[in-house]
Design brief:
Elements: H1 2-21, H2 33-37, H3 58-114, H4 120-128, H5 135-148
Length: 150
């Protein structure tokens, strides 16, 4: 791929030089048949062009700079989108957990309202809830444990 870019840059350079001399530019295909038949080499990673900076014209340098800037901008935009998507997924997960907790809290409150304090279960729960900050928190943990038990 780097060879193709070098060929393209050389072709553009030749076109500009010939244009200045009044000759029509020589057209050359951007890719040879051999390039199409052979598998791409490491096409998934960016590889800088290996030609030395002194052998490039200002037009080539400008084009390369523009391409590099465009590539970097695309990478920044892709990274920004990935971060935004990750933040949205985290927010949705938090909201899901909050809805589950709210539903459990409501069920625990209903369970407490129906609990008879002098029944066996009521007496057991009173002892169970002793170490909790509130009976509602204890009821939520109790109901959660009942759900998780097969």
């Amino acid at each position: 791929m780097a060879e193709s870019l070098d060929d393209l840059l050389n072709q553009i350079k030749a076109e500009y030089q010939e244009k200045d001399q009044g000759k029509p530019p020589e057209k050359k295909p951007l890719l040879d048949e051999d390039d199409l038949k052979s598998p791409p080499r490491n096409s998934s990673t960016y590889q800088p062009i290996s030609s030395s900076p002194s052998s490039r014209s200002p037009v080539e340098d400008s084009m390369l700079s523009e391409l590099k800037a465009e590539f970097e901008e695309q990478e920044r935009e892709a990274q920004r989108k990935r971060q935004q998507q990750q933040q949205e997924e985290q927010l949705k997960a938090k909201q899901r957990e909050q809805r589950k907790r709210d539903a459990l809290k409501q069920q625990a409150q209903e369970w407490l309202n129906n609990l008879k304090p002098h029944s066996d279960e009521g007496l057991w729960f009173e002892e169970f809830a002793y170490s909790y900050s509130s009976k509602l928190e204890a009821a939520m943990d109790y109901l959660q444990a009942l759900r998780e038990t097969p």
